[in-house]
Amino acid sequence: MIDREQVKKVAHLARLQITAEEEEQFTTQLNSILEYFEQLSELDTDNVPPTTRAIELSNITRRDELKPFSNKKALLEAAPEREGNYFRVPQILSSDEE
Amino acid sequence: MTTAAPAKTKYEAIIGLETHCQLNTTTKIFSSESTKFDPDNPNTNISPICLGYPGVLPVLNEKVLEYAVKAGLALNCRIAPYSKFDRKQYFYPDLPKNYQISQFDLPIAEHGWLEIEIADKPNSTPTRKKIGITRLHMEEDAGKLTHGGSDRLSGSTYSLVDFNRAGIPLLEIVSEPDLRSGREAAEYAQELRRIMLYLGISDGKMQEGSLRCDVNISIRPVGQKEFGTKVEIKNMNSFSAIQKAIDYEIDRQIEAIENGDRIIQETRLWEEGSQRTISMRSKEGSSDYRYFPEPDLPPIEVSPEQLEKWKAEIAELPAQKRHRYEEDLGLSAYDARVLTDDRTVAEYFEAAVEAGGDAKQVANWVMGDIAAYLKSNVLSMTEIALKPDNLAELVKLIEKGTISGKIGKEILPELLTKGGSVKKIVETKGLIQISDTGELEKIIDEVLAAHPKEVEQFRNGKTKLKGFFVGQVMKQTSGRADPKLTNQLLGKKLPG
Fold it and tell me: Residue B124 gets which letter from DSSP?
């Protein structure tokens, strides 16, 4: 079960501003999602080794060879703000943190 | 150990280092963009992968894995048979994805150690200590921020981001809290750098940020089991800065405790200008990185065969060389340390010994005249014309008495700049030592005949004048007279 405090914490970590009604709403919704997944605990996994993925695949690597992306200009142009060839971002620390 | 002078309690410092080492691969860890250090041309080595565009697929650079495993082996670590990448999540504008691809619970290497050696003077017995390595893992570097409107982060109204550094491969190496002083910590960092350079996997340039060390430090009264409150120090860009920052911090913490203050768990910055550490406001409360397995990167399983292959490719490491030079070649710990500091110097030295030069004599030339020449001309060992074979030849010619040590020093500049066979130079220039008794006696007789006054003074007890006669013989022969034989013959002839 997830409570309202945890929802507030998760929202903060994800930098989401949510209203009191939304806190209530998301607590209920997230709980029903968690309950749904709870069905999985019906399975006996005692003898199944834990895994982090469902696809049997390992050691995928590439050669250390230059293949530069050709349209770098487009990447800079897609930014909301830039200054010369830099990306420009808003003030990092808000004044109340100082 | 640093102790405050009036204090009754003795304190010890508990220090651990977290080192980030950039690998010198051609391309980034997960994309085929260049890793070139180019601060003047921001955002020239970027791609949708470095910028974390949705839908892109990062793929691990095979060299990064190889270098990480080799570094792990060189640090005596256990290489994980199964390793994976994780997402470490935090919000900061130098990280476009809002997570860093790193390794959390299954790092590529764990449980290792390296040996540090402290030898100050040519004859001092070195202190050796094993420092534990907790873990070594692969991760990507973040971009670089320049703060606008102010020199410092606080007060700046905006920031500029260069993502050229984002995605440069890093090894993060975490030590056990086995270090006890600034000196030990600096030595640990230097040994780590030496190992990376020997492996050829990093350029180790601290000034350019290729090697970055963060320090964790606390103090406690000697005898106490529990650790004190830990402080992190950042921003040291030289080995001496690491040492000074730690020594400063030990004094600061002891003083605080002696004054009844509490040590606050915080991050402090080393200020090179004022030579002190200053408190840095923490980014935000306690961090909660919410690591989870990186779904885009399949796990790594290094096979035993692959491991053996990489192990076999690792050349002899600095600590092994130091031990071998001492035990097999009979050098002092100090000489062994100086010679092995730079791999190219060590290899030059070994090649000259291999070619028949006496180890101690070769060491003297390499550490003395040759090192001085390299230093004053800002050259590296690979840039001189004198080949190791010829240095061995020089040493042997002196040993055999064909030329004197003095002549050897005289022809060295030419050998260093032009190279070539020492024997040939010596022969063409007529520098071969005169070791023939008859020939030398003739010269001595001439010298004595030319200085009757001095001969008389000598015979009247002014025996110090022998040096004058040796000098005259040397002058007559342009330094070619065998000094030992000259001394011997003068000893016979002078008293009359």
Answer: S
